[in-house]
Structures are given as structure tokens and as C-alpha cells.
Amino acid sequence: MDSKSLAVRENYKRIASEIAEAAVKNGRKPEDVSFMAVTKTVDPVYVNEAIDCGIRLLGENRVQEWQSKREAYRDGVPVDFIGALQTNKVKYLMGQIRLIHSVDRLSLAQEIEKQAEKHGIVQDILLEVNIGGEDSKSGTAPADLAALLAQVKTFPHVRVRGLMTIPPPCSDDRYLAAMEELFLRTKENDPEQMQILSMGMSDDYAAAVLHGSTLVRVGSALFGARDYSR
Ligand SMILES: *Cc1c(COP(=O)(O)O)cnc(C)c1O
Fold this sequence. Notes:
Layout: H1 3-25, E1 34-38, H2 44-53, E2 58-60, H3 63-69, E3 79-81, H4 90-93, E4 99-103, H5 106-119, E5 123-129, H6 145-152, E6 158-165, H7 174-189, E7 196-198, H8 205-210, E8 215-218, H9 220-223
């Protein structure tokens, strides 16, 4: 086994136990939190290594990269789409993707509805929230979430399962707390739609679980720093 495979094994064990510990501290069970491996730029060899360790969910950012790598992944591990999504790419995801995390606008939800109907499926999605109000980030403004949810809820081929966020880098947990609050508030009116809170990445997965995250998306802490030159 090469040194990078060994590193993935060690990283997996450490992160999984930190997630489990945070879940218990938060009054939940370890299995209540999904540990997603984010695969962008990662060689499929190491993605499969993570699957061998126990990873049961993959996160893909780019349609083309996923299409070029998917055949090389071990069978049977569900794939979520977490990247910015252009409406003209939606059709490539239909029937292939467990959950689309990055639905940040009505036009995208409408396209998913259209394509899902065409394929005879109901597509599970999350609504992405720009909790830090950053210009550079996608996601709906917290103030616009209720209106977006009210509309998407009426779509027969789209099922809203929860919220996703990429908070700004921050030395404290204020954005995680704000997102937790928004999720719980939204859940009061729409308990059925608010099952999943996709929050937490390499730098903040444990803190995110302490703030109610049910799904953490981990890339570099698991696979090492990304090499975008590939
Ligand atoms: C890349 C990416 C991640 C993982 O980032 P790391 O900091 O490497 O863990 C999580 N979520 C999304 C949407 C990403 O694009």
C-alpha cells in the first residue's frame, strides 16, 4: 500500500471518530451523521480506498469530472452532487444522483422538475443557503428561503429534504449557529422537508455536528491537499 493510501486510512479513522464523538456530544447517535467523501481532483484509487475504509457516500462537484471517473469507483456507493450546477447540465444527473445539494434558485429547481418528470423520477434536493451573505458565494439569502421553499414544495417531481450551506471561513461558530437556527426555524413549518442539514467541511466538521449537521462533506482532511493542476 502506498503512503497516500495509508494516509487516507488514518485520516478516515480519525475523522470518523471525531464525527461520532461530536454526534454523541450533541445528543445523537454516530449513525445519525453521514460522512461524505468529496472527490474533486482525487484519483479514483484513493476514492476506492476511502470506500474500503467505510465511506458510504460520495460528493461530486463537476458533472464532467464525475462522468470521467464514475466507472472507476467501486459499485454501490451513492453519489450526491454538491457543486454549482448549470441548468443545461441537470439532464446528465437524472437517475444517477441520490441528492442534489446545490439548488440555490427557482430556475434551477424548475429545470430539475422538468427533467425529473421526463425521466419518471422524483429527485431529492437540498436548498443551498448563503448564510454569510457573501457576494462570491452561491446560495439563496436566508430572507428568501421561505419563499423559495414554498414554491419548490409544490413541484411533484422534486422533493426537498433539507438545507446545505458553505459558511465563510471564520474563527468562531457564529455562521454554524445561524444556520442551525434557520434550519430549526424552517423545520417548525416544514418538518417533512427539513430532514438533512448538509454543513461542515474539512476545517469545521466537528463544530458543524455540534450545531446539528446531519451530513458533513470532507475533502482535503481525508485525501490531502487538492492538486488542481491535474
Ligand atoms: C470542495 C468542497 C467540499 C470539501 O472541502 P474541504 O475543505 O476540502 O473538505 C465540501 N463542500 C463543497 C460544496 C465543496 O465544493
